[in-house]
């Protein structure tokens, strides 16, 4: 993934993280042709989510399109013949896929509103635990008890997708935060 590709993720009308120059400098120092450390991916994802919440508005259509691709949910890099190119993620450096997924997912989570509850439910079932937890928590924040019921109803699909463990942890975290139990300690 190039710096330009990442900048496109962060821009949507008035949505820009730090200034282009600052963001370009941060990303250029990290985006290379090799893996990016997990902690950096998580921190960048959380920063993007926080910024998207601050800005408000709707989830950018381009980010929704990315979430609809099979490559967002499955690693399709080794299946060239069976997965149509339109369902793959368009990345210059495929080794940076995990960073790309985290940035897109957290941007969607941060921008999500009541119109995006189904998308948050689906993101709460993502195999990346931090993404799943953030989506479940956001769903519970937005929809309250109804959000918890939505998550509880999604247990079956999570099991079918063989994703019960990250989903279960995500639901637990959302319930803890919804009930305010995290603040009691």
Structure commentary:
It is a single chain. This protein folds into 2 domains: 1-111, no CATH class; 117-185, no CATH class. It contains 11 helices and no strands. The protein has helices at residues 3-10, 20-28, 38-55, 61-68, 70-73, 97-111, 117-123, 129-143, 145-153, 155-160, 164-178. α4 crosses α6 (97-111). Residues 12-19 have low confidence and may be disordered.
List the helices and strands and how they pair.
Blueprint (H helix, E strand, L loop, with lengths): L2 H8 L9 H9 L9 H18 L5 H8 L1 H4 L23 H15 L5 H7 L5 H15 L1 H9 L1 H6 L3 H15 L7
Helix pairs in contact: 1-2, 3-6, 4-6, 6-8, 7-8, 8-9, 8-11, 9-11
Judged by helices, strands and strand pairing, the structural class is: mainly alpha
**What's the total helix number?**
11
Q: What's the total count of β strands?
A: 0
Would you identify the regions where 5 or more consecutive residues have pLDDT less than 50?
12-19
Number of domains: 2
The average pLDDT score comes to: 81
Provide the β-strand percentage band.
under 5%
């Amino acid at each position: 993934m190039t710096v330009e590709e990442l900048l496109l993720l962060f821009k949507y009308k008035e949505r820009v993280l730090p200034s282009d120059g600052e963001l370009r400098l941060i990303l250029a120092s990290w985006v290379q042709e090799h893996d990016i450390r997990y902690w950096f991916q998580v921190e960048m994802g959380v920063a993007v989510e926080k910024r998207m919440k601050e800005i408000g508005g709707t989830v950018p259509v381009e980010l929704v399109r990315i979430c609809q691709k099979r490559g967002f949910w499955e690693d399709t890099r080794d299946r060239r013949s069976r997965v149509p190119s339109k369902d793959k993620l368009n990345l210059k450096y495929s080794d940076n896929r995990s960073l790309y997924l985290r940035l897109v997912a957290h941007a969607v989570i941060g921008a999500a509103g009541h119109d995006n509850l189904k998308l948050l439910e689906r993101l709460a079932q993502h195999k990346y635990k931090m993404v799943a937890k953030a989506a479940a928590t956001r769903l519970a924040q937005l929809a309250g008890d109804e959000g918890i019921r939505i998550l509880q109803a999604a247990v079956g699909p999570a099991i079918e997708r063989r994703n019960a463990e990250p989903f279960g942890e995500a639901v637990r975290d959302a319930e803890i935060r919804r009930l305010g139990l995290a603040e009691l300690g």
